Amino acid sequence: MLDEPKQPLVRVDNLKMHFPIFGGLLRRRTGEVKAVDGISFDIFEGETLGLVGESGCGKSTVGRSVLRLYEVTDGSVTIDGRDIAHAPPEELRQMRTQMQMIFQDPQASLNPRMKVSEIIAEPLREHHAGTATERRQRVLELMDQVGLNRDFANRYPHEFSGGQRQRIGIARALALNPKFIVCDEPIAALDVSIQAQVVNLLEELQNELGLTYLFISHDLSMVRHIADRVAVMYLGRIVELAPRDALYDDPLHPYTKALLSAVPEPDPAIEEKVERIILTGDVPSPSNPPQGCNFCTRCPAVMDICKRDEPEFREVQPGRFVACHHFNDII
Amino acid sequence: MPDGPAPVQEPVLDVRSLKTVFKTRSGEVHAVNDVSFDVRPGELLGVVGESGSGKSVTMMSLIGLLPSPPADIRGGQVLFDGNDLLATDAETLRKVRGGRIGFVFQDPMTSLNPVFNVGFQIMEPLRRHMGMTKAQARLRACELLELVGIPDASRRLKDYPHQFSGGMRQRVMIAIALACDPKVLIADEPTTALDVTIQAQIIELVKDLREKLGMAIIWITHDLGVIAGIADRVMVMYAGQVVEQAPTRELFGNPQHPYTRALLETIPTVRGARPEKLNVIQGQPPILGAAPSACPFRDRCAFRFDRCDRENPVRIPAGPGHDAACFYDFNTGGPRGA
Q1: What is the pLDDT of residues A27-38, one digit of tens each?
Q2: Is residue B185 within 8 Å of residue B215, measured between CB atoms?
């Protein structure tokens, strides 16, 4: 870790991503799914920001919107000082070399008809980087870097195990020397003994290459391991954002508390002492979120104001942001 | 949770030397190799292992849920209710399945039929196995939905699976599994498809139901955290074999197989110490082309010695109610029996 103050590499400001719902005989627009509804955060150079939440909370949509794989509804995303959300197509294309993505399912994100070497070389070809020989050399380098045997360059994805396939995905993401990588559930499809291998690889690459990660996951224990700061999402909004240790040792938002308490502990002695907050009910639909605070329908500490006014997302301690009416008096 | 030795009771389910092989175009796959275990009445047995370790195939084999071909059960006995389920006729097996042995599968959406309402699906085993009339079955279905914590049960009987959320669907699955008052409930990764907060709800529900109903439960999972909180006894599977088996506290506190140890060291947690770097189990599980003639974990093992290459270890007692299939003795720091 560096001691000098870091610059934000990625700035996300009031990002909104609403998907239209069409219905009725004339397929008219009848509503919208507010997948991401006004979130803001920074990611500093060289850090890993963990983004956690349950399925359907919008965390993957954030990852895709940040890279402009979707045209965002509102808000801005600045990467390395350039506004990506509104960049014209050609400029966007050039900016894409700086930012890459690693997907959840290595089976689905690798073309089964392409050889590994072709898959890894594809970004290089697409962006006209180097001659054919140089590209070939770069592919082999990348394979070394992610721990794939060079001899397998001419094999197809199905000949590899899940963990190795994820390494291919990582090599492809690294091909153009990006600064920023969105990792969208990169280990969710892998077995426990393989997860640690991939996470350690991601950490080593970060140290070597100074990469910045947005690490999206539902696995709270893995995020605790890899992230420097963590943002917790619920129903399209960030409810809490804090440095990792602060968040795990002393969660402030009632949802974060419940979420952390629900994680089972692989040690019976500790597990016995865990005080669980069992949330009742299910997550409301993002097409029809509740009035006031999004969490008010399930919150164990709900107050009258929560059902009326939306809580503001504010800094309640240095570096700690929370959106909860319980922290209104604290400045 | 009681951790001491359980009172001596006849096992309700006793599996001995089960062997299951799949025949594929590219040769045989020995998915289950000589698996033996038992479950006692009211006990919760946790089965842990990675994908491909044979935990699901073991459970499917013992109640005849695997299509043959490709599956071929090459040997073993499954003693339940005075019968050997592997030797019994299809009719008896059908009565056992969904009757005295209930099931909950991982994904509640694919295991519920989307074109029938849940009332029909809960009433089906009641009418088939218990010979209930429609009216009786409806009454019981209503009770069952209330038992698993679904509000407004009588109205929800008419709803279809897609009208329920993931957690609620899993509750419906549990209601169906419990319909005929089973002696054994087999739950195959019942919370893996669910979010943590919903998983916590289902775990609470199962703990509660177990106290009320007293059936034995076999809970299959890859999540050691879930097991730590719920199981009385844990069985660890690797490459189609049981490599270690012990009471829960003993297994987590004093693991005796290198795989169990490595697994416990590799998983990060949300509480307690946070290591700077995660421990890694190098390599990958073996492909089971033939019944192993040497220890299947040897290529990934830090304690390997020459005997491991020659022989496949059988389970050796390592403490009260505790056994492990390993030639290395962690207590003496050398080969076992040396």
Answers
A1: 888 888 889 999
A2: yes
Q: Do A203 and B227 touch (CB under 8 A)?
A: no
Q: Quick check: A270 and B224 CB within 8 A?
A: no
Angstrom distance (rounded) from CA A224 to CA A228: 8
Q: For B234, which residue in chain A has the nearest alpha carbon? A: A268
Q: How far is C-alpha B301 from the chain's CA centre?
A: 25
* Interchain CB distance below 8 Å, B195 and A263: no
Residues of A with CB under 8 A from a CB of B: 54-55, 161, 163, 191-197, 199-200, 203, 218, 220-222, 224-225, 248, 258-272, 274, 276, 278-280, 282
DSSP letter for each residue of B289-302: SS--SS-TTGGG-T
- Cα separation of B295 and B292, whole Å? 7
With a CB cutoff of 8 Å and minimum separation 6, the contacts of A26 are none
pLDDT band with cut points at 50, 70 and 90 for residue B337: low
Q: What is the CATH number of the domain that holds A232?
A: 3.40.50.300
Identify whether A79 is part of a domain: yes
Residues of B in contact with A270 (CB under 8 A): 271-272
Q: Distance between CA atoms of A95 and A61, rounded to whole angstroms?
A: 20
Q: Give A187's contacts in chain B (Cβ within 8 Å).
A: none
Say how far apart CA A199 and CA A144 lie, in whole Å. 17
pLDDT band at B208 (very low <50, low <70, confident <90, very high): confident
Question: Residues A232-258: what's their mean pLDDT?
Answer: 95
Rounded Cα gap, residues B248 and B45, in angstroms: 9
Q: Contact, B34 vs B19, CB < 8 A?
A: yes
What is the extent of the structural domain holding A128? 8-327
B278 in A contact zone (CB under 8 Å): yes
The CATH number of the structural domain formed by B13-267+278-335 is: 3.40.50.300
Of B1, B168, B195, the CB nearest to A54: B195
* B172 touches B122 (CB < 8 A): yes
Tens of pLDDT, residue by residue over B288-300, are: 888 888 999 999 9
Q: How far is B97 from chain A (nearest CA, A)?
A: 30
A224 to chain B: nearest residue by CA? B270
Closest CA to A301 of A256, A262, A254, A261: A254
Contact B197 A200 (CB under 8 A): no
Q: For the segment A175-213, what is each residue's pLDDT rounded down to a tens digit?
A: 999 999 999 999 888 888 888 989 999 999 999 999 999
Sort strands A74-79 and A48-52 into parallel, antiparallel or unpaired.
Answer: unpaired
Instruction: Please count the other Cβ atoms lying within 10 Å of the Cβ belonging to residue B16.
Output: 16
Q: Provide the mean pLDDT of chain A.
A: 90
* Element containing residue A201 per DSSP (H, E): helix A192-209
For the beta carbon of residue B89, count every other beta carbon within 10 angstroms: 8
Classify residue A2: in a domain, yes or no.
no
Number of domains in chain A: 1
Task: Decide if A282 and B165 are in contact by the 8 Å CB cutoff.
Answer: yes
CA-nearest residue of chain A to B3? A268
Residue A330: is its pLDDT beyond 80? no
State the pairing for strand pair A8-23/A28-44: antiparallel
The verdict on a CB contact (< 8 Å) between A54 and B281 is no
Neighbours of A42 (CB within 10 A): 17
| Nearest-angstrom CA–CA distance, B235 and B37 | 8
- The length of chain A in residues reads 331
B192 vs A288: CA distance, rounded Å: 27
